[in-house]
Amino acid sequence: xxxxxxxxxxAAAVLLVLSACQPQTVIxxxxxxxxxxxxEVVRETVVVEGTPKVVEKEVTKVVxxxxxxxxxxxxxxxxxxxxxxxxxxxEVLNPLLSTDTASDDVEDMLFDGxxxxxxxxxSPVPGLAEEWEISDDNLTFTFYLRNDVTWxxxxxxxxxxxxxxxxxxxxxxxxxxxxxxxxxxxxxxxxEVLDDYTIRFTLSQVDASFLVTKCSYGIVPEHILxxxxxxxxxxxxxxxxxxxxxxxxxxxxxxxxxHIALVKNPDYFKGAPNIDFWYYKVVENQTVEYAQMQxxxxxxxxxxxxxxEDAQQQENLExxxxxxxxxxxxxYQLDPEKSPLFLDxxxxxxxxxxxxxxxxVGSIVHGLARRSALDSAAxxxxxxx
Length: 385
Hints:
Layout: E1 11-18, E2 31-48, E3 51-68, E4 81-86, H1 101-110, E5 115-117, E6 124-126, E7 129-134, E8 140-145, H2 159-170, H3 179-182, E9 191-195, E10 198-202, H4 210-214, H5 222-225, H6 230-235, E11 249-255, E12 259-264, E13 277-282, H7 286-295, E14 300-302, H8 308-312, E15 317-324, H9 345-354, H10 357-364, H11 378-381
Parallel strand pairs: 4-13
Antiparallel strand pairs: 1-14, 1-15, 2-3, 5-6, 7-8, 8-10, 9-10, 11-12, 12-13
């Protein structure tokens, strides 16, 4: 799977995958009851001072509906179903608004960026853009887009969608956390649509990470969201009930705190996925998650470092440790009104140098990580005010 974010240090994470690899259809039989309060007006006859009279009154009813993630037969073929689990549900399914990992994981299945990242060497590779040119001064990026991409509703993808996406990110009235990443190097006026499948970005200053970080944002459809005000964009049903992307999977349903269900996009421009149905299952905690991997209720999920040795002893689990784009860090309290203890840079440097960070790697994550490449210089750059 592609990743839309990069950071500057690499830690280790763990993935568990069931060793049974034969394609099969998994029917998720769990039913979820959703309670809804319905208010309606009813008419009834009452007797007032001996005279019958028809009156109206509002009645509140509690209605229970049953929602299930069982895929219809028409959506399932030889590819089968994959169930991923997490103990954290997504917050929103609009890649311009999300800030949490769970949302990003689902959005990665639904949306594409201009570029992808090669997981082996972290280099940018074609995504929605087939190729690109960079000027000699590293300020101008011209992207040549694919002309065979359609949105999940069948509408064609064009450079107007890219322009709309970045203009929306840069709009201060839209709640996009991406804005802080690019506002210093880009304005809407510096984004030019040259034709339906060519777009140019001219940066205000050189940004070495522009291609691999700012160009991997998920692109959203102008034909659906383009007519909305910022407030309407922030609260649109698109964000939670009907996301439309260009990605390998299409949205089917989201039952909050229980599951998100996606089905494969048969018209995906990189080729239809091998699996038919992807199910993101929300469980109570990591202990439940681990137990359901052992019983086969979940196909794959992460596991804590503390459970790594035990997981390797389970015959029905295949355990894989792999590099992850993530890091762990700490910061000092520098608000003088709360504490003056760390205001002296010499104190911060001394504390940093006194920490045995290698011992922390061994005791906290059981050796399943390594010290950052930046760690050796931390006392020079990380301890500044």
